[in-house]
Amino acid sequence: MTDRVKELLDLLVKGDRGGLARCITLLESRRPIDEADQISLLQACDDIIATRPGISRRVAFTGPPGVGKSSLINRYGLRLIRDGHRVAVLAIDPTSKRTGGSILGDKTRMADLSRHENAFIRPSATSGHLGGTAETTREAILVCEAAGYDRILVETVGVGQSEHDVSQVVDLVVFVTMARSGDGLQGIKRGILEMVDLVAVNKAEDDGHQAALNHARELGSALKLLQGAPAPACIPTSAISGLGVDELSDVIDRLLSELVDNGSLDEQRQNQRIQWFEMALNALLQRRIRDLPEWKTHHARLKDEVTDGTKTPYAAARELLERLAL
Amino acid sequence: MTDRVKELLDLLVKGDRGGLARCITLLESRRPIDEADQISLLQACDDIIATRPGISRRVAFTGPPGVGKSSLINRYGLRLIRDGHRVAVLAIDPTSKRTGGSILGDKTRMADLSRHENAFIRPSATSGHLGGTAETTREAILVCEAAGYDRILVETVGVGQSEHDVSQVVDLVVFVTMARSGDGLQGIKRGILEMVDLVAVNKAEDDGHQAALNHARELGSALKLLQGAPAPACIPTSAISGLGVDELSDVIDRLLSELVDNGSLDEQRQNQRIQWFEMALNALLQRRIRDLPEWKTHHARLKDEVTDGTKTPYAAARELLERLAL
Question: Among A15, A122, A314, B45, which residue has the least CB neighbours within 10 Å?
Answer without folding.
Answer: A15
